[in-house]
Write a structure and sequence with these properties.
With 135 residues, this protein is mainly alpha-helical. It is 73% helix and 0% strand.
């Protein structure tokens, strides 16, 4: 069996994993949530207005402040929605899973035994500032 065939099997296993299924459902729920999508569209419009105002030759500092406040308010609403909270939690789990897979592959490329290498201890310096995610 070649490596690509094994990678395809890994891809299929990932798609059957409960963490991925949760993530896919949360993503679909976000994409289908009209109110959330409306808020995201509003956020993007305000951000474009803010970018235009900041880049303007006649920049109005008061308008920049007003747009920044509106942007923060809309962003806060988006991030506090139940659908977005679920999506972010599910995505974090999938990201950890992908990080674990990548760590295992890296360890194997360095000669570690795929059956016994411990991915939980790999590369941990004890400093969260150098970490790509907790194990």
């Amino acid at each position: 069996m070649d490596v690509i065939e094994q990678a395809r099997k890994l891809g299929a296993a990932i798609q059957q994993d409960e963490r991925f299924i949760r993530y896919a459902k949360a993503k679909l729920a976000n994409d289908s949530d009209e109110e959330l999508q409306k808020s995201i569209g509003e956020f993007n419009l305000i951000r474009m207005q803010l970018d235009n105002e900041i880049g303007s030759d006649n920049k109005d500092d008061e308008k920049v402040k007003e747009l920044n406040e509106k942007l923060r308010e809309v962003y806060s609403g988006i991030m506090s929605s139940k659908a977005m909270a679920e999506y972010n939690a599910a995505k974090a789990e999938v990201d950890r899973m992908v990080n674990d897979v990548n760590t295992l592959i890296s360890m194997c490329l360095e000669g570690a035994d795929p059956e016994t290498c411990d991915i939980s201890a790999a590369g941990c310096t004890g400093s969260c500032s150098t970490c790509g995610g907790c194990h």
